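ESCALATION

Customer reports they have been waiting on this structure for their group meeting. Please prioritize. Original submission:
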Amino acid sequence: MAEPIRLIDGLIADLEELHLTERKRVPPSYEARLIQLTAILPPEVRQELRSRVTIVHLMDRLYDIQGRLLARKATDRGDDFDGGDRGPQSPHSPTRVAEPAA
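Update from on-call: job pushed to the front of the queue and completed.
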């Protein structure tokens, strides 16, 4: 699972950069990377990935595939994955900092 997730992360980062330059479509030069990714994806998460679609459309597909891979990875480990952020929770209230005297 690590290799497809790594490839997806790289593609998403590159697509975000393209999007920030106000490009709208995925260039044909991405086709080889998309074929490589598709070839290593498990069949149950595989989707059609191609260039010349909008960047947003391809990013949506990549996020969907990545979510499915992460859910599958969690299931394989026996985790109860719900896709939510379960970061550390502090049992204490935030500390209030006194304002300096004038």
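Sent to customer with the following note: The chain has one domain: 2-77.
Escalation resolved.
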